[in-house]
Design brief:
2 helices, 26% helix
Length: 90
Amino acid sequence: MMTEMYVVFIGHVQGVGFRHHTRRIASAYPICGWVGNESDGTVKMVAQGDKSILDRLLTDIESYFSDNIHGKKVKYQTPTKEYLGFQIVY
């Protein structure tokens, strides 16, 4: 079953290549969605796929950016929109 994971990353996550590396990490998984900067200094990500794969994606991102991520908010939900590929939004 398709699941949507909504994540807000908190910390020193802008200006450090977070979006580009997140897209690179996401490209290794059969998922779709997007990642983008927010005006409050956080980074928001929406990813859709199998929940176990989404959890592995999140673990990989957290491992890569362990010095930058100081907190996160995660919500799982039924997808409301279909995305193609995994993109950086500006």
